[in-house]
Amino acid sequence: MRIVFATSEVSPIAKTGGLGDVCGSLPKELRKLGHDVVVFMPFYRQARQYFEREGVAVESAHPPVPIVWANWAAQAGFHRTLLPGSDVPLILVENDYFFDREHIYSTHAGADDFLLRYAFFCRAVVLGCQLLGIEPDILHAHDWHAALLPVYLHSGLRGSETFRATRSVFTIHNLNYQGAAGPDAFALTGLHSRYWAGDAVEHFGTVNPMKGGIIFADQVTTVSPNYAREIQTPVHGAGLDGVLRAVSYKFSGVLNGIDSDEWDPSSDPHLEANFEAGKLHGKTVSKRMLAKEARLKYKAKTPLIGVVSRLVDQKGFQLLLPILSKLLKAGAQAVVLGSGENYYEEGFAQIAAQNPESCSVWLGFDNELAHRIYAGCDLLLMPSMYEPCGLNQMYALRYGTLPVVRMTGGLADTVVPYDGTNREIANGFGFVDPASEDLYFATWAGMLNYKDSRLWKTLQTNGMQHDFSWSRSARQYEATYERALKG
Ligand code: ADP
């Protein structure tokens, strides 16, 4: 099959979260299954910097050409390189006005032109395929940024030679980011007025690309089976649960995998010492080094709790802030790496300032430090309000760090909480209600059980030996593509 990925993020080139991880790994696994995969992403400033830093050549695939759509015209240039560590072609869509910005999702001169930027990106993917002679069997669009592609495909592209046989798959990585904009923005999509309708991209008077992707894709997936169930209910459906129920015949959940080369404690170059299940000395060294880096006193018998996350409401830190000091008092140390909303950044910084002996906070994004935290901690907290899949808990499991999670979304698909009777299968700790006390008791259960080193090793081994690699999920995507082609 020839599969074209359209995505806003690709790890390690430009990423803000799990979307980047998936689009950096899945294409390589599909390639291993023998498919012909091409990835399109915007040529962000961050991507340029990445290639410069790495000394990787990026060659022009096509000189800039104008794209005219709606009442807009903009130039798109196309550059070609390979997805790092693979032979998968990566096409970078260049337009400096849209993509040369301080952050991946920066506004322009204070105005948020997100719909215009990504409508342009979708148009450029279409044009890029035509100019470069790429005739996809499957156009796999990721998240709202690429959601207009299945709509464009429906709106007439099948008449073009390039897309004659193309079927589309749309993957929801996070339903809460829908790219919705006011009604005036409909003109920016360049779609025929037929698409300004409740059974297309119009949603209660707004333009909603995510809705369009869900309705017009031949198959729709999301990133865990449990999240697929949850978002068909009003509580988690973010206003689109009815739409998702209506398309349930073509909607499924495929659990993300992890890049088992990048996230491998037995060979991770970011660690002082490597380790694996059954040979955990390197984990003790990692804990010691992390404590040093965090300016905390190394205490072998004190559980070290970690957080690596975007600091936003979704991640449930409103549950953690009120009880973190109490956890420290109860005998834990904590390290936090994250960035996001001021409220959380200041809240964590304040707790660290009040507890310099037991808590350390880094505000920012640091992938290498993230590796050292997964390796050096004993527990990783993820009290998420919702979590489409969650990768952090899988990295933690692989690195022998037991996750403490709220049982939602993909967290419930991957973490088996220890309840005193299930040591053969348990790999972490969990709670259900979004309440600080419940998070406290789940974490405290982790801290108490940490003292039982034989039990702890069993739980660690259960997590470390579980297969979270992409190969199983890639086969499920392959089956999804086959269904799309038959449909
Ligand atoms: P989401 O996509 O909702 O942010 P995921 O758990 O799916 O959550 O993916 C988060 C990814 O981003 C993981 O690879 C995690 O290690 C990384 N990450 C999040 N915050 C940071 C940070 N401050 N520094 C380094 N990596 C981070």
Molecular structure report:
It is built from 18 helices and 17 strands. The longest helix has 19 residues, at 114-132. The mean pLDDT is 96. The strands form three sheets. The protein has a nine-stranded mixed beta sheet, with helices on both faces. Strands 14-13-12-15-16-17 form a six-stranded parallel beta sheet, with helices on both faces. Strands 8-9 form a two-stranded antiparallel ribbon. It is of the alpha/beta class and 487 residues long. Helices cover 38% and strands 20% of the residues. Helix 11 (317-329) crosses helix 16 (436-450). The chain has two domains: 2-257 and 471-486, 3-Layer(aba) Sandwich (Rossmann fold), CATH 3.40.50.2000; 281-467, Glycogen Phosphorylase B (Rossmann fold, 3-Layer(aba) Sandwich). Residues 17-18, 21, 308-310, 337-339, 365-367, 370, 389-392 line the site of adenosine-5'-diphosphate (ADP).
